[in-house]
Design brief:
Nucleoside Triphosphate Pyrophosphohydrolase; alpha+beta; 15 helices; elongated; two-stranded antiparallel ribbon; Endonuclease III, domain 1; 4-stranded mixed beta sheet; 8 strands
Length: about 350
């Protein structure tokens, strides 16, 4: 059986109708690949359409303010992708005259572009035989060839990259790369692969040895980190307070309410006597109420235990914004959900 031909024949019949498959423009391929990192196609597609409508070219994206880009990205998560996207757009527009590098090695030099994205752009836009290896590809290759090397270990990364490089169709690398990714997403899916109607089932080692659910192998990662966020929601006439996250941490450059991060839950008295609360309110008389229950917001490697405390100060506080304008700021989904429920 010709593995590559079988995969590409399947793709031509069953591929999904997606907008970035109708172009070889490196700008569009780059946008789609950055958005689909750790994101399902169903979730990423609306964002791709919004971005290409708002920023039809790399020059349009480069000229946009960062806050605007982050706002449009809001809800897609992993916000460092959006910041890197904006940075690279500016570099390509201002330093490269709007032309993306045409080779895998040169693409790798751009901020936010790693092995997978560089391979995708190089193959789809410039017909370079650079093999893509993502979660879908790991799954297809590990199952079909019965490879139990952990895919998230350095040995596994190297092995599967070399294997994909041997299998790629050098005459049509763009189709092969898209085909094997699509095959992993639809046919050889993580939990419910369609093994008995699979065109590769005659040669699949995992199916033969009843190891489909055991492959691919992944090394278990570190335990989840738990963080306790206590947000201070200012209510003073028509104003509240938002602050931008500056430090290198989750949600960098996004906006949120003034925050007290603690080692665990805090009660009303703890909040009232906390130095960050006193810094915000000063000597003003105030009323403090907790809004709702603590919310657990789950990220990939940490869980945020968020509590919202509504503060009614007797005097104005610094850094106020109109409550009616809160929706215009780029905020984490956690804050966006609160704003929607609280009805600012």
């Amino acid at each position: 059986m010709n593995f590559s031909k079988t995969i590409t024949d399947w793709y031509r019949t069953y591929k999904r109708d997606l907008p970035w498959r109708k172009t070889t423009d490196p700008y569009c391929i780059w946008l789609s690949e950055i958005m689909l990192q750790q994101t399902r196609v169903e979730q990423g597609l609306p964002y791709y359409l919004k971005f290409t409508a708002a920023y039809p070219t790399v020059f349009d994206l480069a000229a946009a303010p960062e806050d605007e880009v982050l706002k449009l990205w809001q809800g897609l998560g992993y916000y460092s992708r959006a910041r890197n996207l904006h940075h690279t757009a500016r570099y390509v527009a201002e330093e490269l005259g709007g032309r993306f590098p045409s080779s895998y090695k040169e693409l790798l030099k751009l901020k936010g572009i790693g092995d997978y994205t560089a391979s995708a752009i190089a193959s789809i836009s410039f017909n370079e035989a650079a093999a893509v290896v993502d979660g879908n590809v790991y799954r297809v290759l590990s199952r079909y060839f019965g490879v139990a090397i952990p895919v998230n270990a350095s040995e596994g990364v190297k092995y599967f990259k070399e294997l994909a490089g041997e299998l790629i169709d050098r005459q049509d690398p763009a189709t092969f790369n898209q085909a094997i990714m699509e095959f992993g997403a639809i046919q050889c899916s993580p939990r419910a692969p369609k093994c008995h109607e699979c065109p590769l089932n005659d040669g699949c080692v995992a199916l033969r040895d009843d190891k489909v659910q055991q492959l691919p192998v992944k090394i278990r990662k570190n335990s989840i980190r738990h963080r306790y966020f206590h947000y201070l929601v200012i209510e003073h006439d028509e104003y509240t307070v938002l602050q931008q996250r500056k430090h290198k941490d989750i949600w960098q450059h996004l906006y949120e309410f003034p925050l007290i991060e603690a080692d665990g839950p805090l009660d009303k008295s703890d909040i009232e006597h906390h130095k960050e609360f006193r810094k915000l309110v000063g000597d003003s008389p105030f009323r403090l109420e907790q809004y709702g229950e603590t919310v657990i917001h789950k990220l990939s490697h940490q869980h945020i235990h968020a509590s919202f405390w509504v503060v009614y100060p007797g005097d104005p506080v610094n850094g106020t914004v109109r409550k009616s304008e809160v929706g215009a700021y780029p905020v984490p989904v956690l804050i966006a959900n609160f704003v929607r429920e609280y009805e600012f």
